[in-house]
Amino acid sequence: MAKVRGARAAEAEALTGLVMRSKAYWGYRPEALAAWAGELRIGPADVASRRIAVAEDDAGTVLGLASLDGTAPHASLGLLFVEPRAIGRGVGQLLYRDVLRRAAELGVRRMVIDSDPHAAGFYRAMGAVAAPGGPDGLVRFEVSPAPLAAWARAWTGGGKAVHLGNVAEFNAQFADATLDREQAAAHHYACLAAFYSPRPAALVLPRPVPRGWTELVCRQLGWTGVEVYDGLVERGPGLLDRVRERPALAARLTGAGLPLVPWGLTRPFGRLAGRPWEPAELRYESKSAAHGLFGRILAEGGHPDIVLPAQWRPATRWAAARLLSARAGAGESSVLKSEHGVGGSGTTVVSPGQLRAAGGARALLRRLPRGPLLVEEYVHGPAGDEGPRDLTYDGFVAADGRVHEVGGAVMDVRDGCYAGATVGPGVVPAWAEKPLGAFGAAVGRELAAGGYRGWFDLDFVTAGEGRLAPTEANLRLTGPSVAFMVAARLDELRGAGHLVRIADRVELGMRLPEPQLDELCAGLARECAALGAVFVPAIPTAAFEPAPWLGFLVAAHDAGTLDAAEALVRAGARAGGELFGPPEPSP
Fold first, then answer.
1. Which stretches of 247-315 are assigned E, i.e. beta strand?
2. CA distances (Å), 430 to each of 27, 410, 433, in order?
3. Local confidence pLDDT in tens for the 587 residues of the chain
4. How far apart are CA 399 and CA 405, in angstroms?
5. Are strands 110-115 and 534-539 parallel, antiparallel or unpaired?
6. Beta 403-414 vs 390-397: how paired, if at all?
7. Alpha carbon distance 288, 312 (integer Å)
8. Which of 461, 490, 470 is nearest to 555 (CA)?
9. Which residues are CB-neighbours of 556 under 8 A, at least 6 positions away?
10. What is the DSSP secondary-structure string of 126-137?
């Protein structure tokens, strides 16, 4: 494995030879190389003044070099050359990421790259953005070096963390009728544990996951040394109890002193982490309790652009039916909600026309899961197409009680169910940024005062006249939180300003065996890189289900490229089965 170190002045002549061999690799004529020789020569004094670093293998053989020229806040990538025999082995990527890291540490916020035309595809794939200008015969790119976001450093101290995929365990503690007792879907969503922080040290997962998946995710996000402990639970909740039943594993996960990051707080997590377990911390996972919290905050004033929909908790299902009928008779739409639920499960929008088509309120309720129901006023959106309908706010309460804002996102909600989210600069409409942030911070302060410590997410719908309506709180990690983590990591690796989209339950053309799934994902990663985008498979295990699907993330520096990458991946997922044909029958 190659590693990077600072170059030495005594190596200047040898490094000049490497540069000329690398330039010649692209087939330039001898007279052209001779004309560039003076420009490409490295003198002993250049090694320090140009901040030249080299990549070398385990035997100490130099494989490539890169320079960081100029002073903050502007600089340039003056040189990046790889020995011809090492091209395609990741050396250029290693050197490029090292230059970006050093630039960020020095306070560089704009770095220019004047690329040889043959290397333009490399820089595009690494996240550099094409820019006008530049010397004749070269292709100019720019990148904005960035350190890890402040909120991400506060989340896990800026270092590595142990990620615990206890999704089923979290869901099970609410005993909600809308949640699958076997928790099959939850075990698939536990794969999102790969992204619970920007820098994982270990993943702990209930079901076995494909090795090719973890390898591709680590390549795409520049992670090394990530340990994977999977296959601990076949069905049902209980992941962290299984960990505690293996003392050696529990000691390995807790003994290094790294932060333990779960999907959400549970009693077994408290036992593993040595953290006092207070079930009351999670009281606002209840949709009615969250509604009450929102009402108390609004009663104090200071949030004129936030409107709270009315909510009722009928004593019986038949009382709910009478309320629905009365509201429909008055021409009003309603939202039926279970007390808990995930991703829109247990949430149904009921218009007067839908109620009539269902044969009345009682007939409709007979089709829904058993258990208590809430009836909520339906919030109509702005007239016409005036931007996104569903927004979300993410933040967390640190161990010291400080509330940290992560940001706002736009959710993709279809038929009342979560289908994905997009995060990044400019995603949230400008009019919504201030009220979203102010109300999110107010909720965070109330959570902190009530003793909660951890991640929280607030969902909103847009109402008329530039207002937002909060609909629920999630005291756990979520799909949008995963997108924020990936955005923070990619900004660090590829330059600031990434838009990241997470897509949920994207249908596959057929059930794919593990090798074919690996091949499909590797191909999608290459195709997205050619666009200047990043593809990361997020939930691969559902590809093996009878009705196969895939969760994924795509990232880019602009909305057009992001949309193109998403369309490419969706089309590739649908066509994936046709590429490989049916799997061979088992012997």
1. 260-262, 311-312
2. 50, 12, 5
3. 789 999 999 999 999 999 999 999 999 999 999 999 999 999 999 999 999 999 999 999 999 999 999 999 999 999 999 999 999 999 999 999 999 999 999 999 999 999 999 999 999 999 999 999 989 999 999 999 999 999 999 999 989 999 999 999 999 888 665 555 555 678 899 999 999 999 999 999 999 999 999 999 999 999 999 999 999 998 878 899 999 999 999 999 999 999 999 999 999 999 999 999 999 999 999 999 999 999 999 999 999 999 999 999 999 888 888 999 999 999 999 998 888 877 556 788 889 998 898 888 888 888 776 777 899 999 998 876 678 999 999 999 999 999 999 999 999 998 878 899 999 999 999 999 999 999 999 999 999 999 999 999 999 999 988 899 999 999 999 999 999 999 999 999 999 999 999 999 999 988 888 999 999 999 999 999 999 999 999 999 999 888 899 999 999 999 999 999 999 999 999 887 565 555 454 44
4. 15
5. unpaired
6. antiparallel
7. 9
8. 490
9. 498, 499, 531, 532, 533, 534, 562, 565
10. TT-EE-S--STT
Distances (CA, A) of 403 to 238, 351, 392, 470: 30, 39, 17, 19
d(CA 481, CA 492): 17
* pTM over 0.90, yes/no: yes
CA distances from 259 to 154, 167, 307, 320, 547 (A): 11, 18, 38, 45, 36
Residues 6+ apart with CB under 8 A from 572: 520, 523, 524, 527
CA dihedral 558→549→526→93, nearest 10 degrees, is 80
Q: Are 83 and 46 in contact (CB under 8 A)?
A: no
Q: How far apart are CA 460 and CA 464, in angstroms?
A: 13
Residue type, 133: G
**Residue in the block written with tokens 């807790």:** 254
Instruction: Quickly list DSSP for 172-203.
Output: HTT--TTS-TT-HHHHHHGGGGGGSSSSEEEE
Residue 18 backbone phi and psi in degrees, to 5 = -60, -45
Cα–Cα distance for residue pair 270/74, rounded to 1 Å = 47
For residue 44, how many other CB atoms are within 10 A of its CB?
12
β-pairing, 347-350 with 499-507?
unpaired
b/e code 380-419 from CB counts within 10 Å (16+ = b):
ebeeeeeebbbbbbbbbbeeeeebbbbbbbbbbbeeeebb
Rg of the Cα atoms in the chain: 27
Look at residues 523, 482, 454, 576 and name the one whose alpha carbon lies nearest to residue 189.
482
Residues 6+ apart with CB under 8 A from 444: 395, 396, 397, 403, 405, 456
Between CA 272 and CA 276, with CA 275 as vertex, the angle to 5 degrees is 125
**Residue 7, C-beta contacts closer than 8 angstroms, at least 6 positions apart:** 15, 47, 52, 53, 54, 65
Q: Which two tokens stand for residue 120?
A: 């333009």
Query: CB under 8 Å to 359, separation ≥6 — which residues?
Result: none
